[in-house]
C-alpha cells in the first residue's frame, strides 16, 4: 500500500543494497519517493532489487556503484542523480564498514577506510546536496550514526570515532540550515541483524563454540536491554517520520533506536 507523502521527491541512500540502507530505501519508496541505490553486490541481484522496488511502490530507481571512500566517485553519483531526477531531496548517509582490534594492533589502512566511508563520505554527499536543497527550501538529511555515536566500546576505535563524528557533523549541518526548510538529523541504532552484525555473531559462535542463536543472545545481553534486535523496517519508519512535515522542527537530533542500550 503506497502512501504519497513523498511523491515526486528523490531519495539517495548510500549503502542501500542490503541491511539498514535497503530497509530505509524501501520505506521511503513506499511513501512515493524515487530511489537512488548505492552499494556493493551482484549486478543481477541489484537489478532484481530495483525491479522489486519499482513494482512494489510504483517509483523509479537508479543504481550507482560509487565507492564511498573515493570523493570523485561520490561526485559522479551525485551528478548521475541530478541528471536523472534533477537532484537529491532526501539524503540518507548510511554506508559503513567495521573492523575490530585493539588500538595498538589496528591496521592503519583499516582506520583510514572506516573514517573515509563512515564519516568523510557524509561530508561529500552533504556539501554537494545542500545548494539545491537550499534553493528549493526543502531537504532532509538523515545520517545513520549508531549507539556508538553516543557511547564507546573496546576494540572499535575507528568506528566509534567516525560515528561520534557523524553526530557532531549532524549538529553543525542542522545549525547551518536552521532558518531554511532543510533539516538534518542522525539516527543511532543499536544492534540490527545486518550482514555486518551477522559476521560478529558468526565469529562469536566460532570463538566460543556455541550455536548461532546463543551467540545472538549473548551479543544482545551485553548491550541491548530489550534482548531484541532493532529491524531495518523500524529504522525505515523513523526515517519516514523525519522526512515528514511533523518533523520540520526536529533539527540536529541524535535519535536513539537501540532497545535501551544508551539509557543504561
UniProtKB/TrEMBL annotation:
GO biological process, alphabetically ordered: monocarboxylic acid metabolic process
GO molecular function: 3-hydroxybutyrate dehydrogenase activity
Superkingdom field: Bacteria
InterPro entries associated with the record: 3-OHbutyrate_DH (IPR011294), NAD(P)-bd_dom_sf (IPR036291), Sc_DH/Rdtase_CS (IPR020904), SDR (IPR050259), SDR_fam (IPR002347)
UniProt cross-references to NCBIfam families, sorted A to Z: PHB_DH (TIGR01963), PRK12429.1 (NF009093)
Family: Belongs to the short-chain dehydrogenases/reductases (SDR) family.
Protein name as catalogued: 3-hydroxybutyrate dehydrogenase
Amino acid at each position: 500500500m503506497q502512501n504519497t507523502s513523498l511523491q515526486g521527491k528523490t531519495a539517495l541512500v548510500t549503502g542501500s543494497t542490503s541491511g539498514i540502507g535497503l530497509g530505509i530505501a524501501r520505506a521511503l519508496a513506499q511513501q512515493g519517493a524515487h530511489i537512488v541505490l548505492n552499494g556493493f553486490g551482484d549486478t543481477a541481484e541489484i537489478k532484481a532489487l530495483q525491479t522489486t522496488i519499482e513494482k512494489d511502490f510504483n517509483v523509479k530507481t537508479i543504481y550507482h556503484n560509487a565507492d564511498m571512500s573515493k570523493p570523485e566517485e561520490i561526485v559522479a553519483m551525485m551528478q548521475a542523480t541530478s541528471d536523472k531526477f534533477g537532484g537529491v531531496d532526501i539524503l540518507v548517509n548510511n554506508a559503513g564498514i567495521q573492523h575490530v582490534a585493539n588500538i595498538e594492533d589496528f591496521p592503519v589502512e583499516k582506520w583510514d577506510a572506516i573514517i573515509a566511508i563512515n564519516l568523510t563520505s557524509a561530508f561529500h554527499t552533504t556539501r554537494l546536496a545542500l545548494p539545491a536543497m537550499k534553493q528549493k527550501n526543502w531537504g532532509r538529511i538523515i545520517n545513520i550514526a549508531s549507539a556508538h555515536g553516543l557511547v564507546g566500546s573496546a576494540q572499535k576505535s575507528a568506528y566509534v570515532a567516525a560515528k561520534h563524528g557523524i553526530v557532531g557533523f549532524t549538529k553543525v549541518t542542522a545549525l547551518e540550515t536552521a532558518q531554511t526548510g532543510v533539516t538534518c538529523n542522525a539516527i543511532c541504532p543499536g544492534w540490527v541483524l545486518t550482514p555486518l552484525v551477522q559476521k560478529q555473531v558468526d565469529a562469536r559462535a566460532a570463538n566460543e563454540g556455541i550455536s548461532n542463536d546463543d551467540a545472538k543472545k549473548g551479543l544482545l545481553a551485553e548491550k541491548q536491554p530489550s534482548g531484541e534486535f532493532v529491524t531495518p523496517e523500524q529504522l525505515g519508519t523513523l526515517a519516514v517520520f523525519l522526512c515528514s512535515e511533523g518533523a520540520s522542527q526536529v533539527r540536529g537530533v541524535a535519535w536513539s533506536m537501540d532497545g535501551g542500550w544508551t539509557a543504561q
